[in-house]
Every structure is written in structure tokens, then in C-alpha cells.
Design a protein that fits this description.
Layout: E1 11-20, E2 24-27, H1 50-55, E3 58-64
Parallel strand pairs: 1-3
Antiparallel strand pairs: 1-2
């Protein structure tokens, strides 16, 4: 529920991308920002909802997926 780096207030998300021809990329998997709390949802407004607070400061890191490459490489 809290940021990954609490001192900085930064949320870290990573996503792998798959290369295609002509310098185009697509996501390997979907990127999940958070789960929806349906019990608290009716009390939230657009300006103070938990998703917006979580995404205020987000570090999104993309990695290049290569099938035959070891995860350690």
C-alpha cells in the first residue's frame, strides 16, 4: 500500500517490452498499478483517490525482453 521508497515517496514499477520490427515495442505483460478496494471506493473522489496518490511519483522502468538471454544477463 505504501511507496517502495518511503523516504522519497517513490513507487517503483517495472515492465518488460518485446522488440518488433522497425523500432517498435509491445508490452510482454500487463502492468498492474494497484488492486481496487471496493469497500473504500464509494468514499473516494477523483482528486483524492488512492490510485492518484500512488501514481503522483512513480518510477517506471522498462526492460528489454530477449527470449534466449539468461535473467542474470
Amino acid at each position: 500500500p505504501g511507496p517502495d521508497f518511503p523516504d522519497a515517496g517513490v513507487e517503483l514499477k517495472t515492465s518488460a517490452v518485446i522488440p518488433h520490427r522497425k523500432n517498435r515495442y509491445s508490452a510482454k505483460e500487463r502492468l498492474k498499478l494497484m488492486s481496487i478496494n471496493y469497500m473504500k471506493l464509494p468514499a473516494e473522489t477523483w482528486s483524492n483517490n488512492s490510485l492518484m496518490r500512488k501514481c503522483e511519483t512513480i518510477l517506471l522502468l522498462f526492460t528489454l525482453y530477449e527470449r534466449d538471454l539468461s535473467l542474470l544477463d
